[in-house]
Design brief:
The complex is a heterotrimer of chains A (253), B (275) and C (340). Chain B has 275 residues and is mainly α. Chain B is built from 13 helices and two strands, in the order H-E-E-H-H-H-H-H-H-H-H-H-H-H-H. In chain C, helix 5 packs across helix 6 and helix 6 runs parallel beside helix 14. Classes of the chains: A mainly alpha (253), B mainly alpha (275), C alpha/beta (340).
């Protein structure tokens, strides 16, 4: 079975990376359209000169990381509390936030912020985007944590309590470390959802906080710009290297 | 315990109250107003958007969306389960393998969809390869149909199935599988009868995280489906863009929410673990 | 000095550097300025420009409707000018600040949607026709050709209700802005009849497929078609015999703008012949600026796809803003067409 799983996993990874291979091929294509015209590194150098693109990526990273940190903390705490005793209202509202089509969420958040701005003099910007992202990413964290807690052995915590620990200590020193892989998985999911969001972000971003998906969507819909392909390859390779390094460090420790 | 629990719940409850319920009330208000001539809403109040929604045309769209979303969710689960199991059981590289699953999804979904369109179209890579190997004589219609939409959805939502499954499978005690093997069960049997039931919460979470957003998907049916299939996501998206009928879009969204809530409530009575 | 102090100092220093210059926020369609346009403007007027793009006029309208979006200059299509004026979103233009207005082509000095140019300045224009591969046995010179089964189902239409209805209505001999329920129902029936013959409803993304030969015939905008034809000599473009749609994107200043002086400078700058010509050449668009057109190389100036001759233009019709009930009927029919 081990060999079957390895072969299967390889096939699935190939499936996942196939479009990226296509993007990689086009990122070195000397033509702006999807017909092969020769090899070139031009598009990569153009990426580094495209200030807007780099600024957009910076914004996306800031937003995604902020939203992920907030959601992971809030979501883990909430998931734990919900595991102890359900709250139909909170779970229901989280579920509904998943169900809301993006454009409905975006339009309504925009209207909410604009109403809010009559009392608080802030404009649309990074803060509104981060808040919007938190609102629709929270459910992902809670669902992953809850799913993990369902198979969790509560007796460990009870033992700690019996031995004199407070509930907070039991949570912090027993549950959280055991929950850690799930927390990481949830954070990963949250980051992914936030990093690539377009519809909601574009509506609440305002003038100043253009994110990478907004730029890419604008460029891509009018005919895919090869710079976008080059940037995607750069992101993939860059993050891939980071992941490999982190994996090495993890194994070493 | 109660106080700790209240503290833990408070921030999330606040977030949902402000950033979900308040906008939801706005959506409700929108659904009961009249469409502005150029988008937006205006008085008078009217329940017309709701009465319009009860039309066989939209029922057909709902049914098609449920069908495609269910199929995609099923295939996603089938595809993701062995992968999640593989990652969970691997000794040394769990985080690395998990990150490698997510890595493609940090590049824009739109351009990956374009890449799929390039792969699947008649002169695309797959058809050209198959023709070159003389396995087919005419190009297969791999794009612009419901099958392509399902493929696009499965591809786009795979991580949403893999991660919750991994989160539950990760804690799986290898000793259980060893014991089953000792007792003579084949690997596949032990997976089917031991692993699968234990991973149920993760499986259910994954199915919810895939099925529900699939209902609201609009980009994949538009591009992979060639704009020829209308799903609920397209219908709602359309109301806020070219149709400029915000009240109707809001009403359809709220009715969809109501429907799913009712169905989930009925299912939850049978199985406590759904949420 | 500790790290935090350094960071604060650096950020403060940077902020001080750029705090002096005013900033203009421009919101435009993609691919509508050349690579030198914005930098040259920033240099000439000693300011900064935040330049952002959108993919659909409705998206722009949704953001701007609140009256508090932060944008200064936007580019509505001609059918959006009157609605935006009615919603009190636009600044009434003072021609004293727009000396270069005279550069406009005579066709755009007094356009249908704004006869006195009080609200907008025409920028770039285009039309919708048929892009096709020269290899087809029967060149599609009329909309009716798209209903014959001569192209092996390798036909696409635009994924835009206004455009699909325009084609069907023209085929029926009606106006593209028709609100007549019977005409619209007939158009819907036509579109449903056409659907089995179509490969897909696609916008610009079909361009690469036409070049590669996957799609033989596509309803397409003239500008995108021009780019496709630049990349492949096998392609041609036709203005359908029954008639076709025209549209024009216009520059406008939002009433909420806090940099109106700079916005006027920008509009005036865009009207300069050299600037408009550079954009037209690099982006392959058709400029509404007559003086700029005169500066273009002859091959572009007389390009029949970008600048149709008057006898072809006679068949063209401008899109108009449609009243609410008509819009709703069209949308209902569009949903029926797409679901069929």
């Amino acid at each position: 079975m081990k060999r079957f799983l390895v072969a299967y996993a390889t096939a699935v990874y190939l499936f996942l990376y196939l479009p990226l291979a296509v993007l990689g091929a086009f990122s070195v294509n000397a033509s702006k359209i999807a017909v092969w015209r020769g090899f070139t590194w031009n598009w990569y150098t153009q990426v580094f000169h495209n200030e807007a693109l780099l600024q957009g990526m910076m914004n996306s990273l800031i937003i995604a990381i902020s939203a992920t940190v907030i959601c992971t903390v809030l979501g883990t705490l909430a998931g734990y509390a919900l595991w102890k005793r359900r709250s139909a209202l909170l779970v229901g509202s989280l579920f509904l936030s998943l169900l809301t089509p993006e454009i409905v969420a975006g339009v309504s958040l925009l209207a909410f912020f604009e109403w809010l701005f009559r009392f608080v003099h802030v404009q649309l910007g990074m803060y509104t985007v981060i808040l919007a992202h938190v609102s629709f990413c929270l459910v992902y964290v809670v669902m992953v944590i809850l799913a993990r807690l369902r198979t969790f052995d509560g007796s460990l915590e009870e033992a700690a309590l019996d031995l004199g620990a407070t509930e907070w200590e039991a949570f912090r020193r027993i549950t959280v470390p055991l929950l850690w892989p799930a927390i990481l998985a949830a954070a990963l999911l949250c980051f992914t959802v936030s990093f690539d969001d377009y519809v909601i972000t574009s509506l609440v971003a305002g003038v100043n906080s253009e994110t990478l998906p907004m730029i890419i969507y604008a460029m891509a819909r009018r005919g895919v710009s090869p710079e976008v392909n080059a940037l995607s390859v750069l992101i993939t390779v860059g993050l891939g290297v980071l992941i490999l390094v982190a994996g090495r460090l993890e194994n070493a420790s | 315990m109660k106080r700790l629990r209240a503290i833990f719940l408070a921030p999330s409850a606040l977030v949902m109250a402000l950033l979900f319920f308040a906008p939801l009330l706005i959506v409700l208000a929108y659904s009961l107003l009249t469409r502005g001539p150029y988008g937006g809403v205006m008085l008078p109040w009217s329940g017309e958007s709701y009465t319009r929604a009860f039309d066989p045309l939209y029922g057909e769209i709902l049914w098609r969306s449920i069908w495609i979303a269910a199929l995609s969710t099923f295939l996603c689960a089938v595809l993701a389960f062995p992968l999640a199991l593989f990652i969970a059981r691997s000794q040394k590289h769990k985080t690395l393998l998990l990150n490698l699953v997510m890595l493609p999804f940090w590049t824009s979904f739109l351009i990956r969809t374009y890449a799929w369109m390039f792969l699947l179209r008649d002169t695309g890579l797959i058809n050209s390869a198959l023709e070159g190997l003389h396995l087919i004589r005419a190009p297969l219609p791999l794009l612009f149909n419901s099958g392509a939409v399902v493929l696009g959805l499965v591809y786009g939502y795979l991580p949403f199935m893999v991660l919750p499954l991994y989160a539950t499978l990760e804690k799986l005690d290898g000793a259980l599988l060893d014991a089953a093997a000792d007792l003579g069960a084949s690997p596949f049997v032990s997976v089917w009868r031991i692993v699968l039931p234990l991973s149920r919460p993760g499986l259910i979470a994954g199915c919810v995280l895939v099925f529900v957003p699939c209902l609201g998907a609009y980009l994949t049916p538009d591009l992979m489906g060639g704009g020829k299939t209308v799903m609920l996501g397209n219908l709602v998206q359309n109301q806020f863009t070219s149709a400029r009928d915000w009240p109707f879009g809001s009403a359809v969204s709220l009715l969809l929410m109501l429907l799913v809530v009712v169905v989930t409530a009925l299912l939850s009575r049978k199985s406590e673990e759904l949420l | 000095m500790n790290r935090r102090g350094f960071l604060i100092g650096a950020v403060g220093g940077l902020a001080a550097c750029s705090a002096g210059k005013p900033r203009l926020n421009v919101y435009n369609w993609e691919n509508y300025v050349a690579s030198t346009t914005i930098p040259n403007f920033e240099r000439e007027f000693d300011c900064r420009v935040r330049y952002s793009t959108y993919g659909s006029a409705e998206e722009m309208l949704a953001k701007v409707m609140g009256g508090n979006s932060g944008w200064d200059v936007v580019f509505p299509s001609n059918s959006f000018v009157q609605p935006m004026r009615d919603l009190a979103l636009l600044e009434r233009l003072d021609h004293n600040n727009l000396a270069n207005l005279l550069n406009l082509d005579s066709r755009f000095r007094s356009p249908e949607w704004d006869p006195h140019l009080e609200w907008c300045v025409p920028y770039m224009h285009s039309s919708t026709g048929i892009l096709y591969s020269k290899s087809v046995s029967r060149p599609p010179l009329a909309w009716a050709d798209l209903w014959t089964d001569s192209y092996g189902r390798r036909v696409t239409m635009l994924d835009d209700p206004a455009e699909v209805f325009a084609a069907c209505l023209k085929r029926l001999g009606c106006s593209i802005n028709s609100g007549n329920p019977r005409e619209l129902a007939a158009a819907r029936d036509l579109a449903i009849r056409q659907k089995p013959l179509l490969r897909a409803y696609l916008n610009e993304e079909v361009r690469d497929q036409v070049i590669a030969g996957d799609v033989l015939v596509a309803q397409m905008w003239a500008q995108v078609s021009q780019v496709a034809m630049d990349n492949s000599h096998e392609l041609a473009f036709s203005f359908p015999l029954e008639g076709f749609a025209l549209y024009c994107d216009n520059a406008a200043i939002l009433r909420e703008s806090k940099h109106k002086r700079l916005a006027y400078d920008f509009l005036n700058y865009l009207l300069e012949p050299r600037v408009a010509a550079d954009i037209a050449v690099e982006m392959r668009t058709a400029t509404a600026n007559g003086a700029a057109r005169a500066l273009l190389p002859e091959r572009d100036r007389e390009n029949p796809v970008l600048y149709p001759t008057p006898d072809i233009l006679k068949r063209g019709e401008w899109f108009k803003a449609l009243p609410g009930p008509v819009q709703r009927l069209r949308d209902r029919y569009w949903t029926e067409i797409k679901s069929a």
